[in-house]
Amino acid sequence: MRLPAFTMGAETMLINFGLYLIAQLKADPLLAAILTTFEAAQEALTQALSAFRAAAATVVETIAARDRQNSLLTSEVQKFGQTVRRAGGNDYGSPLYRHYFPDGTTSVTVAPISVQIVRVEQILMKLETEEDETLTAHAAPLTTSLNDLKTAIQNRDDAIIQRIRARIEINNNKRAWFDAYRKTYYLLRKHFRANPNVAEGFYRRMETYREDDVPAETPTEEPIAEQPAAPVVPAAPGTSAVPAVPPEQAPTAVAAAPAAMAAFAVGRDGDKGEGVA
Question: Is the pLDDT of residue 235 over 80?
Answer without folding.
Answer: no
